[in-house]
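Sequence in, structure out. Go.
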Amino acid sequence: MKYKGYVGTYTSKNSEGIYSFDFENDVLNNVELFAKVKNPKYLTFVEDYICAVCDYEHKSGVSLFDKTGKEINKLEYEDSTSCFVDYKDGYIYSVNYHEGTFSVVKVDNGELNLVKKVLIKENAGCHQVLFYNDKFLIPCLFLDKIVIINKNYEIEGSIDFEVGSGVRHGIFSDDNKYLYVIGELSNYLYVVDLVENKVVNKIAVLENGESHLKDSAAIRMKGNYIYVSTRTKDVISVIYVEGKELTLKQVVSSRGLHPRDFVIVDENIIVANRLSNDIAVLKIKDGLICDEESIVSLPEGISIIMEVK
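Output:
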């Protein structure tokens, strides 16, 4: 199967914006600049468009691009770039790490309108929006908690973690009973029971139980295996999961420096290594990472989204 990938970047040194690439038969190729824009750090698909958080001349916000890379609309509503964006049922949702805000933007035939901006707490380190039933779960790194926002965009509670956990991103079990959350600051993977809304287990994702080295980042799941990147160690960790039970199976090189984000496509992990300016394909066999298949140069990649070509 043929895939098209899009990579969000920091435009601090070599990058000029959003890049695209092709992926077929375990091989990456045709890397090119898709859209020239400042700091498109996180991307998501919005109907037939690519949505990116961006910086503009005076403010920050979100832009929509068509599949040729042409910007068709933008909305400026922040003083600094959000660090995450997602889309569901006609609405774009973003969170801002520095402002400590959760924002809702309505999409109507390509038009963008700000619906709501919720202040959680200034410098809360808001890092993701998770959709759970009719609620929004917002991991807040500096609060060591996931803030729960209801369908009326009101804060109604939280799931608390140990001090210094630095909760960053999470992913749900197939039955939605558990939420698996990576702690950026602690280097622990936490299991949250979503019936009781509390942490019921945790495991260090680095070898020899190392923890509190900081910079664990992305988390993905395939079957009974969870994969986590840690930037300070340049590694991907593999954890076997059965409900709330966790077993660390593997810690391997990301084949580059500073693995910020990765996606799983078929039996492959495609990882963006920001500081070595490349993206690499790591082969998966029986849940474990077994080989490097392909690697290409791409500047300052920090987020990846994929679609069937």
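Check: The radius of gyration is 18 Å. The chain has a mean pLDDT of 97.
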